[in-house]
Specification:
- With 188 residues, the protein is mainly alpha-helical.
- It folds into two domains: 84 residues, no CATH class; 76 residues, no CATH class.
- It contains eleven helices and no strands.
- It is globular, with a radius of gyration of 19 Å.
- It starts with a helix and ends with a helix.
- It binds iron/sulfur cluster (2 copies).
């Protein structure tokens, strides 16, 4: 029993330390005041709210967090970071949890969010910047959410194209090699 509890302690601190190292945020400074949760515009839709996510990291609750919808619903607005008395920003923490979940083989619970995430990341990987037209095409292929796309995104997209707010043909940035090197290092 003694050996079991010491193993548990090692495992929990290992998970929290990994999240801290990869995100660059000191997750141990959180004292659960919940100011981040109160200010988060998406907290109402998350299965675990921002302050809960921090507490679960401290407690080493790896599996429920890597299966959670919260990291996939976070929009990276940084409202939490500006409110936190300890200067903790949840956005990089949520990004870290997303990539840890993918590396561990968990299927993202929010499939359309993941489809948009992949299309966005791939667009920057190919062109060095987002090209909305090809990104939307990849999103359509990945999400297969044809009806809502026809009803919402395409109408807006066509209007933007006609008004020349988004380019039809993609443009590549000059330092594309450096962007690709970043992707290679981060294994995205
Ligand atoms: S605002 Fe900061 S200290 Fe308070 S619960 Fe959120 S992360 Fe923790
Ligand atoms: S960055 Fe994410 S967790 Fe923080 S307030 Fe915005 S949506 Fe919520």
């Amino acid at each position: 029993m003694k050996a079991q509890s010491s193993n548990f302690k090692l495992q929990t601190s290992g998970f929290a330390l990994e999240v801290q190292r990869r995100s660059g945020e000191n997750v141990f400074r959180c004292y659960y005041c919940q100011k981040c949760t109160v200010g988060c515009p998406i907290a109402y839709a998350m299965d675990y709210q921002p302050a809960q996510v921090l507490k679960m990291i401290q407690l080493g609750m790896r599996e429920p967090l890597l299966k959670s919808s919260a990291p996939w619903l976070c929009v990276g607005c940084e409202a939490c970071g500006t409110r936190c008395p300890n200067g903790i920003s949840l956005a990089p923490v949520m990004d870290t949890l997303k990539y840890m979940a993918l590396e561990a083989g968990y299927t993202p619970p929010e499939t359309t969010v993941y489809a948009l995430h992949r299309a966005f990341v791939n667009s920057i990987k190919i062109f060095g910047r987002v090209h909305e037209t090809t990104m939307l095409a990849e999103y359509v292929l990945r999400s297969r959410d044809i009806f809502s796309i026809i009803l919402s995104n395409y109408g807006v997209g066509i209007t933007l194209l006609l008004k020349r707010k988004i380019p039809i043909l993609p443009e590549r940035v000059k330092a594309l090699g450096q962007v690709k090197e970043l992707y290679r290092k981060s294994k995205l």
